[in-house]
Design a protein that fits this description.
Length: about 500
């Protein structure tokens, strides 16, 4: 059970709520705030005050007065008319995270909706009803209007939803959960679709994986270094204190912990080699910079998911309604672009290590990590895949936020394109997972050739975990099956937990 109060979501607990299927409950303090703001809205409507989106139309129709009797129809029409998305459906976990973020935003008590609506949304979430939502159509500034409208469509009994693995009409899905479609009142349709919850959900899931990928990149890099008989001088604490970026210092410490006690490291003369290539020697500097970027962006995202992002906002303490632009997605747009660039660098440098380890002239290992080269190609083509993925990322990393196209007859004349940036970041992160999985596959294969010499305790923990599930590739087979297995393996929580038992928290 997670208590929703509008203020306590983090990247980690948000993703865990979804992955572990936790139920939601509204805090009493939030319920009080929600009731107070709704009371004000009802008072203003009774006085026939002109309030944007409540007694007026939307966007370019802001000057069109809407009668009290039509206020409910206005909110219903808003949802149906704004459901204009196309393309692939958003993954179910991200849809559920969108709903979680929407509930959390409304729970702050600035949106003027009824308590009954939020209670309905919580029951909807707890019933695991997942609307089918198209991924394309948001420009990320008046909020993620189209995807959030498609999310809200299910509340009024329209559209399609997934429930227990099957697709139903929204009305039937609600019925199976003992629910009826809800009738929207004034302000409520607008409150449901004004916000950044789609771009925030994509960014949150990808960022959660990116945090772990930083650790996995350190493990993969350390394995590759030892497999290629690299030297550890570049990780000396004194070097990194002389340039004290926090991420760099932490990464260098990680490498020292992972390599500690390596018999392979002790088996060769460091004086001959002197220093390694950048992809090995500069891992703390590159991986560390990525870490620092992620920490910064995580702070921005966690501020966003605990914010009120619709318009106008209702301030019950002062009795005001104020129109503004908290729905504008610029904060997410910028960090999504920044994160895409940062996380892609983990893949760029990982692919270079993979290229070195399969090249016998550079690694000192059998060419393409096979003893039967010619008859067998070994891991030759795995590097091709890694190269393809990093090249694809270079295209995807073009910033979405530098573009803007006016909408709504130039009333909305600057748009963030944050939804595009967030979807790109999600895709880039998926590519990075595979690149690091490929390096791990190659690095484990490389370490095999040093047996019976063992690596450091941290690397051994990773190596042994891998070898329990993925065997040494002694002859050619279907390589993508091995890559897929490695991808799934390294994303298991127990993989990192096993390594960190020996190294401490990476």
């Amino acid at each position: 059970m997670h208590i929703i109060d509008g203020n306590n979501l983090t990247v980690e607990n948000s993703v865990n709520i979804i992955k572990k299927g936790l139920k939601l409950k509204l805090s009493p303090a939030s319920a009080k705030k929600i009731k107070a703001s709704r009371k004000l809205v009802d008072e203003w409507i009774s006085k026939d005050e002109i309030i944007y989106g409540i007694t007026t139309g939307f966007g370019e129709f802001k000057n069109v007065k809407i009668s009290k009797k039509d206020s409910g129809i206005l909110q219903h029409n808003l949802i149906t008319s704004h459901t204009a998305g196309v393309g692939e459906f958003i993954p179910d976990d991200i849809v559920r995270l969108m709903l979680l973020f929407r509930i959390n935003s409304l729970a702050k008590g600035f949106s003027g909706v009824r308590l009954e609506l939020i209670e309905f949304l919580i029951k909807f979430f707890n019933s695991c009803i997942t609307p089918l939502i198209h991924s394309q159509g948001s420009v990320g500034s008046s909020g993620d209007l189209s995807p959030l409208s498609e999310l809200a469509l299910a509340y009024i009994g329209e559209g399609k939803c997934r429930l227990n693995g099957k697709i139903y009409s929204a009305k039937d899905a609600l019925k199976k959960c003992g629910m009826q479609p809800i009738q929207l009142w004034s302000k409520e349709g607008l409150a449901l679709i004004n916000g950044t919850q789609m771009m925030a959900a994509y960014t949150c899931f990808a960022l959660y994986d990116a945090i772990n990928l930083c650790k996995l990149a350190d493990i993969a890099g350390a394995m590759s270094l030892d497999a290629m008989k690299g030297i550890e001088n570049a990780f000396d604490e004194k070097i990194h204190k002389a340039r004290p970026h926090k991420g760099q210092i932490k990464c260098a410490a990680n490498f020292r912990a992972l390599l500690k006690g390596s018999a392979i490291m002790k088996s060769h003369d460091h004086k001959i080699k002197i220093q390694d290539a950048y992809s090995l020697r500069c891992m703390p500097q590159v991986h560390g910079a990525v870490r620092d970027t992620i920490i910064y962006c995580k702070g921005i995202l966690e501020t966003e998911i605990n914010s009120a992002t619709d318009n106008p906002l209702i301030f019950s303490e002062t009795g005001e309604y104020i129109s503004g632009g908290n729905f504008h997605g610029e904060p997410i747009a910028l960090i999504a672009d920044f994160l895409s660039i940062a996380i892609s660098e983990l893949a760029n440098i990982s692919e270079r290590r993979t290229a070195r380890i399969v090249d016998g002239s550079l690694s000192g290992l059998p060419r393409f990590l096979t003893n039967n080269g010619g008859l067998h190609s070994g891991l030759m083509i795995a590097q091709y895949t890694s190269a393809a993925l990093v090249s694809e990322n270079k295209v995807l990393c073009h910033p979405a936020s530098v573009d803007s196209i006016p909408t709504s007859a130039n009333q909305e004349d600057h748009n963030s394109m944050g939804s595009i940036g967030a979807r790109k970041f999600y895709k880039v992160t998926e590519n990075v997972k595979n690149v690091i999985a490929i390096e791990m596959l190659c690095a484990a294969q490389g370490l095999d050739f040093h047996l019976p010499l063992k690596s450091g305790a941290g690397i051994n923990a990773a190596y042994n975990y891998i070898r329990k599930k993925i065997k040494h590739i002694s002859k050619d087979g279907i390589l993508n099956l091995e890559i897929e297995k490695m991808n799934k393996l390294i994303m298991e929580e127990s993989f990192l937990q096993t390594v960190e038992k020996t190294t401490g928290k990476l």
